[in-house]
Model the fold of this input.
Amino acid sequence: MTGLTGFLGLAYPWVLAAHITFVIFWMAGLFLLPRFYVYHQETTVGSPEDRAWIEREARVRSIILNPAMIVVWILGLMLAVNIDAFHQGWFHAKLLLVILLSGYQGWLGSYGKKLANGQRPLSGKAVRMINEIPGVAAAIIVVLVVVKPF
Done:
């Protein structure tokens, strides 16, 4: 296993395991929050249900999404440096997708603020479609990491 060399040494499999665990948490949040938005959009602005969705969404962002994304980035960069991935094509593609997922999370935060302000700029169907983005990205990332096609 090439990962046992580099600055992480014997800690490499533990860092990798933690990275994968936090990727799962991050992806769970990226699936959950848009689903919350679908239900939130159907509520009456200013109603108790509307306020409850605002609170739930804030908790997902602050308890799951933001911490998980930060840990994924830190551990992922540690792993990349350890295996010298910055010179490998598959890693460039993976990194681009992770950057895009991070931007997607930022967009989710801004959309949540719009919902909290009573705006409903997208349809429920559009939000359901947007919910597919992390799944597609995750499938491509797994192929890139496991198969390393280039």
User: Anything to note?
Assistant: The mean pLDDT is 96.
